[in-house]
Amino acid sequence: MKSPSASAAPPLSPSQQAAPLLAVSHIAKRVQGPEGELTLLEDIDFTLSAAESLAITGPSGSGKTTLLGLLAGLDTPSQGEIRLNGQSFSTLNEDQRASSRGAICAFVFQEFHLVADMTALENVMLPLELAGRDKPAAIAKDWLERVGLSHRTRHFPATLSGGEQQRVALARAFAVQPRLLFADEPTGSLDHANGKRVIELLFELNQHSGAALVLVTHDPQLASRCQHHIELVEGQIFSNSMAALSSTTSLTPPEQSSIEKFVHDDLLNEDKAP
Ligand SMILES: Nc1ncnc2c1ncn2[C@@H]1O[C@H](COP(=O)(O)OP(=O)(O)OP(=O)(O)O)[C@@H](O)[C@H]1O
Ligand SMILES: [Mg+2]
Questions:
Q1: Mind listing the domains of the chain with CATH numbers?
Q2: pTM score > 0.85 for this model?
Q3: Which residues have CB under 6 Å of ligand 1?
């Protein structure tokens, strides 16, 4: 593996690493549906520190993408508070939220959100240029190579497969060396080999750059690599391996979390496979 790019953000100091990067306090999300008010999320509460990794799992429609959108400041909760790096989102307007998260976070959306009339290379260069980084083309090429796409740099998104588009979106997120990476199903469109490659890159970013990860996933292999798991069912936390807000983070025994048990059983089955 190559070392992180020379233009990466400087490493975090020990005090920065100790502070909660993301603090989520009793948030709820309600919307007006065709049949009246709908509760999409209820009483979500946890903190995440620098360099920690969190898997958010749960059935389709349980609120994972909705939660990620709130954590990333793309939408506002109906109730409760989210603090990013100590700053409450509720005190910021939309532009301020965008610049606050732009300095810290990167996103990989479930639908990738690549810019259609930009090549793969230009898509990866875009946030580097916006951040005023040196040598954006060289950094972008390096990350496209790392995700296995050095032969597709001049392709437009429409001429890339779903898995290739996903890897461009990941390269775009990795390239800015964020302190916090949000990714919605980052291995959802990938085959086994590319999924494994992306998981390695995610945890390389986590371990070498101290980036915190918040990953929505159905992939038990990916969930098992994260330090923490939150399982959502019908918009509520069904199981949570994290400490509640304001107490010390600790892991619960695996048997207390159904997702961890699922992952554990899955790995056991994998071990038994010929
Ligand atoms: N703006 C909205 N108005 C009404 N209902 C919504 C809105 N956005 C999401 N929903 C509903 O909220 C629920 C949660 O959606 P969400 O996209 O968060 O699910 P998810 O857990 O990410 O599912 P998947 O695994 O399929 O991606 C779904 O039932 C969805 O239909
Ligand atoms: Mg989703």
A1: 17-102+212-272 (3.40.50.300)
A2: no
A3: 31, 33, 38, 40, 58, 60-66, 110
